[in-house]
Amino acid sequence: MVTLSAFADEISSDLNEQLDVLESTGIRHLEFRGVWHKNVIDLTDEELEQVRSVLRARGFKISAIGSPIGKIRITDDFGHHLNQLNRAIDVAQYFGTKYIRIFSFFIPQGHSAKDYRNEVLWRLQEFVHRAQTAGVVLLHENEKGIYGDITERCVDIFSSCPSPHFRAAFDPANFVQCGVRPYTDAFAALEAQIEYVHIKDALLESKRVVPPGEGDGELRDVLSALFAKGYDGFLSIEPHLAQAKPFSGFSGPELFRVAADALKDMLAELHQTWR
């Protein structure tokens, strides 16, 4: 049985509205990226305490910390970013989740990704070392424009940083927006690394994000293959149906429900139960 989660800040910046909508859809987990117009790693200790108190009172849990770690230019200062990773680790431990979503650095426009390979891998290895020490798992998301945005470079990343503390958050829509067919071109190569799945779909021609199952993300094929192998992890809804920004997306309550219902319909077609 899989567990549904969601980027609740796509619903609203208000915590109670986030939880009200999730509750109405039967979803009890959040991939915690932001609240009150602030990113999770920018929240004060007092704000984190307030969030945890509300979540506990209402019976919600955190599936992962949706951090922005690695979502900087590869030429940007790394020392400050390591401090941000330490903060993300502290937040994950505070909320009792082992997962932290990360990225593999934006490549300067007009430059070749291979020219920055050594720097990317060195930085990721430092991330992984810190994750191993802290006992958390970093989930690399294949975001467009970063080093690990296509199949070959994702394989390179995981081959170069082998660790049970470094795994893949497989995002079909992001692959589509890079011209990659997620199941046809990426799944087999990354299957052994997939530990978490983002539910988002997109069209190859226009790159526009659409509800799950309505695009070229081959979601049914991806999920069918995962279920055949016994996948029982998280499916995290990240709709991006109204707005897609560099560090977040927005759908609003109604479009979020459209995405959640589409996923549930797909799971029913695949005879897969969820909680």
UniProtKB/TrEMBL annotation:
Xref: SUPFAM superfamilies: Xylose isomerase-like
Matches recorded under InterPro entries: IolE/XylAMocC-like, Xyl_isomerase-like_sf, Xyl_isomerase-like_TIM-brl
GO terms assigned for molecular function: isomerase activity
Keywords assigned: Isomerase
Pfam families to which the protein is assigned, alphabetical: AP_endonuc_2 (PF01261)
Domain Xylose isomerase-like TIM barrel stretches: 20-257
Protein name: Sugar phosphate isomerase/epimerase
Species name: Alicyclobacillus acidoterrestris (strain ATCC 49025 / DSM 3922 / CIP 106132 / NCIMB 13137 / GD3B)
Lineage: Bacteria, Bacillati, Bacillota, Bacilli, Bacillales
